[in-house]
Design brief:
- The protein has one domain.
- The protein is mainly β and 148 residues long.
- The chain is built from 1 helix and 9 strands; from the N terminus they run E-E-E-E-E-E-E-E-E-H.
- The strands form 2 sheets. The protein has a 6-stranded mixed beta sheet, with no helix packed on it.
- Helix content is 3%, strand content 41%.
- A hairpin with a 5-residue loop joins strand 8 and strand 9.
Length: 148
């Protein structure tokens, strides 16, 4: 019998969900203004559009469209890594309205403006309690996934 998968925890609580079972997708956690219905990520208490105080929590995604992107050849803090030569960073338009910025998975030649992406989780490290600490990223859909 195989061992159960380690528990997963977000690097920062309140930004995304972690699926509890197979077939479930992670979701970003945003908010919707009770007065004008504008949707935000990350969550807000005061609407940036109409300044109404009071929003409701909403789950966003898990798919979006790549609006624009760039490729970072020198990683954060300037630490070069031969195994990870760089990474993409993009702005993704979600169907609910907000445009979010995210690190992108995939090789540089796989990314195109206008392509459909899906929210995914990546393990950063294991904490002292043996849990996987995860971050969110968006990844390109495979041709089979894009047709669904």
């Amino acid at each position: 019998m195989s061992e159960p998968a380690p528990a997963r925890v977000p690097i920062e609580p309140g930004y995304f969900t972690i699926p509890e079972g197979p077939g479930q997708a992670p979701r970003l956690l945003g908010s919707r203004c009770a007065a004008c219905a504008e949707v935000f990520f990350p969550r807000r208490v005061v609407c940036a559009k109409c300044l109404h105080r009071g929003t409701e929590d909403v789950e966003l995604g898990p798919r979006g469209t790549l609006h624009t992107w760039t490729y970072c050849h020198i990683p954060l803090f300037g630490k070069l890594d031969a195994e990870v030569p760089g990474y993409g960073v993009g702005q993704i338009d979600l169907p609910e309205g907000p445009r979010v910025q995210s690190v992108l998975s995939g090789a540089r030649d796989e990314l195109r403006m206008g392509m459909e992406l899906e929210l995914d989780l990546e393990v950063l490290r294991t904490d002292a309690e043996g849990r996987e600490v995860v971050i969110y990223r968006f990844r390109p859909l495979t041709p089979a996934e894009a047709g669904r």
